[in-house]
UniProtKB/TrEMBL annotation:
InterPro entries per UniProt: ATL_DNA_repair, MethylDNA_cys_MeTrfase_DNA-bd, MethylDNA_cys_MeTrfase_DNAb, WH-like_DNA-bd_sf
Any Pfam family hit: DNA_binding_1
MF-aspect GO terms: methyltransferase activity
Name of this protein: Methylated-DNA-protein-cysteine methyltransferase-like protein
Residues annotated as domain Methylated-DNA-[protein]-cysteine S-methyltransferase DNA binding: 5-82
Domain of life: Bacteria
GO biological process: DNA repair; methylation
Alphabetical keyword list: DNA damage, Methyltransferase, Transferase
Length: 98
């Protein structure tokens, strides 16, 4: 991924407010050429100790992506007040941007 595109993705992720989430696809649409998969690739390759709120990025439909950090992601989101319905989805009012 081009450095400029990676920077766009990380800037958008850094802008997600606490207590809100967005999807890989929504982030991709805010850039100049990223795809949902490439947004995921950026998140997978973040350096150890980064401060980016990676946990605020969720799969389409308001579900947590299936990855080894999913339980930590759910814990961090819940700590910010993000709720999950009985099917494990995050309701629309938690999404950013509106």
């Amino acid at each position: 991924m081009r450095a400029e595109l990676r920077e766009q993705v990380t800037t958008i992720i850094a802008s997600i407010p606490a207590g809100r989430v967005t999807t890989y696809g929504r982030i991709a649409k805010m850039t100049e050429g990223a795809t949902a998969r490439s947004v995921g690739a950026v998140l997978r390759t973040l350096p150890e100790g980064h401060r980016l709120p990676w946990f605020r990025v969720v799969a389409a439909g308001g579900r947590l992506a299936d990855h080894e950090g999913a339980s930590e992601q759910r814990r961090l989101l819940a700590a910010e007040g993000v709720v999950f319905d009985e099917r494990g989805r995050i309701p629309a009012h938690c999404f950013w941007p509106e």
